[in-house]
Structures are given as C-alpha cells and as structure tokens.
Amino acid sequence: MTSQRDILEFYVKPAKMADPGEHAPMLGALPSDVESLARIAQGLLLHEHIAPAYGVTLTDERRSEVHLRSNEQRLDRFLGRDPRPLDIARPAAERLISNCRHTSLLMVAMLRARQVPARARCGFGGYFERGQFGDHWVCEYWRADEQRWLLVDAQIDEVQRKLFDIDFDLLDVPRDRFLVAGDAWARCRAGELDAANFGILDMRGLWFISGNLVRDVAAINNMEMLPWDVWGAMTGPGEAMNSERIALYDRLAALTHDPDASFVELRDLYENDERLRVPPTVLNAVLRRMESI
Fold first, then answer.
1. What does the alpha-carbon distance between residue 72 and residue 132 come to, in Å, rounded to a whole number?
2. Alpha-carbon distance 290 to 3, whole Å?
3. pLDDT level of residue 238 (50, 70, 90 thresholds)
C-alpha cells in the first residue's frame, strides 16, 4: 500500500516536463513562500492572449514560445536572451510568452526546488467570464502545516485581478471557482452544470471536458502536456462517445476527484492503458502536426 509520504515524494522528484534541468540551482535560490514564487512567475511570463492588457503586441515568432513544452526548454530560451536571476521582474514585452499551463508548470518546479510537493491540475476556471468555465490550469501544492492540498493560480497578477474582478484568495483558490476536469465532467453528467459553458472560444461541451480530463490524468502522473496536445482516449469535436468511452471518463472523473486516495489505481491505469499514457508522439492541434515528446 502506498503511503502519503510516498505520494508526496512522487510530487517532489524531477519529472520530464517540470524538471528545470541545468537551471535547477537558480530555482533553488528563490524564496520559499508561495506568494513570492507566484510574483516571480508573474514577472517572468506573459500570457499570450492577455498581452494586449499590458500594451504588448506579439509577433508570430514570439507567439511560437507557447509551443515549448518543458521547463528546461522554456528556461533555455528565456535565459538565453536574459541571464539575470529569476527573481528580477522583466518588463512585460521581455517576458516569455506563455499560458496558464506554463505558469502552473513553473510554479510546480519552483515549489519542488524547495522540497514542497506540487503538481499541475487541468480543468476550468469560473472567474474569467460570468457564467462560464474557461479552459484553465493551476498549481496544486501540499501545505504541510495544514495537511492539505491548496490550489494556487499564479497567472493572475494585479493587472488580471482587476481585469477579471477577482474577489478570492489566489493562493487558496476555492474548489468551486476552479473545477478540476473530472469534477466538471461529473457535475455536467449529473445535470448540475451545463457542458456548453465549459471550454474556450467556440470549443465547448463534454468532448472538450473529456480532453482536459485525460490531460489532468497525465498531469497527475507528472506528464503535463500542452493544452492542445491530443492523443489516445481524447474525443474530437463532433465525435460521438460510445458507452465504453463514457464509462472510462466516468471512472477517471471519480479517481481524479481525490488523486491521493486513488493514487495507485491512477498510476496503474496511466502506465498500462495506452489510451491514457502519453505516447512518443502527439498531435499538436494548433500547429496541426505530430510532434515528438
């Protein structure tokens, strides 16, 4: 039987996407408190779709930075043009172009560098547009003194706090304001929420929720993929779900509600079910090409 200690150790050790590689010493030199780390992330990263709020117009070349998957690749790119310490906030135009997944993954790495268990969670934020749950990622970290996992949304700085009228603690995001993908699936399946309100742009519905559910399962297993990476058990837009596929999503939703309680089963499923395990190549749906992982 896997102990809580073993589970927490799993979320501290290096992993393919979160590992900063040779940049680990720079992360290890950063402050230890979560609030400071969130501010550091905000001073390094600029969300691709919110750049205009900072007065920044992006070129296609700068936008391409969102397709860099791992922390090591991203830090290579960023520090290659600005090698100063990471706790020095850069002007908005000089930050690394990112999205919520990238910010969450950097938070994971910074927390792990301080031996704080952390993992990225894929789901939906209910605080960007009234009545809607937008495609979103946050970081979940272990608060040892309270013996519980907290959600932190490090993407939301003061500019975005005003832009989205945030009225809650971003270092302890309420579980009804951010829904992990499995909870969104379960509540929509139960008729409590409308799946048409979940997604991004014109991509909405149960098919979109199910894709984020598969991404969340991968993230729980330390494989945090891009929000538009597609593989295995994901359902495409307009594609019908058969009873077997729905049963799989129902099971995953139940297991990811409390990943620690289902840790062994989630690890076993991910490692042994080729529908869930991230393969050597995935479809980058934005660039419309297969890419090696």
1. 34
2. 38
3. confident
Model confidence at 2, pLDDT cuts 50, 70, 90, reads confident
For residue 136, the surrounding DSSP H or E stretch is strand 133-143
Residue the block writes with tokens 């959600």: 151
Closest CA to 121 of 175, 77, 70: 175
Two structure tokens written together for 57: 């117009």
Tally the residues of the chain: 293
Output the six-digit token pair for 278.
Answer: 């991230």
Whole-prediction pTM value?
A: 0.97
Helix, strand, coil in percent for the chain, rounding step 5 = 40, 15, 40
Query: Edge-to-edge strands of the sheet including 289-292?
Result: 229-230, 281-284, 289-292
Q: Which of 275, 224, 279, 232 is nearest to 68 (CA)?
A: 224
DSSP 3-state of 79: helix
Residue identified by tokens 């009873």 is 243
For strands 229-230 and 203-204, give the pairing: unpaired
